[in-house]
Amino acid sequence: MIERSCRICGCTEDHACETVYGACYWVEYDLCSACAEAAENRERDLIGYRVCEDGSYGPVSVKDDLDDLQQAVRADCIEIIGRRVGPEKRGYAIVCDEEGMLRGRDLTAVYTGIRAPALVGDLLILRMREDGDLDSLTEDDLGYIAQHIRTVNRCILELV
User: What is d(CA 94, CA 80) in angstroms, rounded to the nearest whole number?
Assistant: First the structure.
């Protein structure tokens, strides 16, 4: 009898992949859940809103992978933080340079009305899904974010 195995990684019923959610499972006869999710994330483009330390900002498309997220904010080490924006207090994920202060990057964002650390360097604003994965902004989100930021001395103030 031939043992069922994943066509990508070769895992089997007895030797499953370990994921953050536990052991993988079959999504097709010869494809495990870990490989299917990795393939989906590799091929997915995200629409975000980039705010740059030079004062420019606007919509941008990036691949949903670590290298592209790092390139989008010009950082080797990134951090993803949650912030609420505007009068509706909509929650967004912000990808930023985790070592930006140490590297002397320019101030990019401060938040009015809350006690939160200022952010430095380029930022990428995205949605966060309930499962913790990043997701594209909708057209409504893009308009909302554009409406609730303003430039003051090249620093973006997000009104919270």
Answer: 5
Q: In total, how many domains does the chain have?
A: 2
Per 3-state DSSP, the chain is made up of helix, strand and coil in percentages (nearest 5) of 15, 40, 40
Closest alpha carbon to 141 in 95, 96, 84, 97 = 84
Comparing CA positions, the residue from 82, 123, 125, 131 lying closest to residue 100 is: 123
Residues 58, 145: Cα–Cα separation, whole Å: 9
Q: What is the mean pLDDT of each run of 10 residues along the chain (160 residues)?
A: 86 86 90 83 81 85 90 93 84 90 77 67 90 90 83 48
Residues 108 and 152 in one domain: yes
Rounded-to-integer distance, Cα 150 and Cα 57, Å:
10
Task: Based on the fold, state whether residues 54 and 109 are members of the same structural domain.
Answer: yes
Q: Which domain holds residue 75?
A: 44-159
Q: What pTM did the predictor assign?
A: 0.68
